[in-house]
Amino acid sequence: MEKSLFDKYGGFSVVSKIVLDLYDRLLDDDDVGPFFDEIDMARIVDHQTKFVSSLMGGPASYTDEQIRKMHAHLEIHQLHFDKLQSLLRATLADHGVSPEDQEAILAAFEARRRLVTE
Prior knowledge:
This protein is mostly helical and 118 residues long. The protein is built from 7 helices and no strands. It has helices at 5-8, 12-28, 41-55, 64-71, 78-94, 99-110, 113-116. This is Group 1 truncated hemoglobin. InterPro entries: Globin-like_sf, Globin/Proto, Hemoglobin_trunc.
């Protein structure tokens, strides 16, 4: 049986480090950083860790409807999604995720674009 990317890269402890690093980058970005003003960062990092874990084949998952509801109140445009995707790619690369595995994770992320963008 083939290992999931989640298991291959070390599970929640590694994904948590990736997500914390990603949020450092997101908060510094002028386009997407403002989305996180006045947000409970511990809560969102927890959700994002579960979400990225699910993108990597891990045990946590969100339904399309849950993702849509969580983002419905935000005005997320294609530019914002593209920026997040770019920062996710750079973060994955900096944490040693191979290019082909980055593509698999980013493809799973891209598949959810229509759920969160206007």
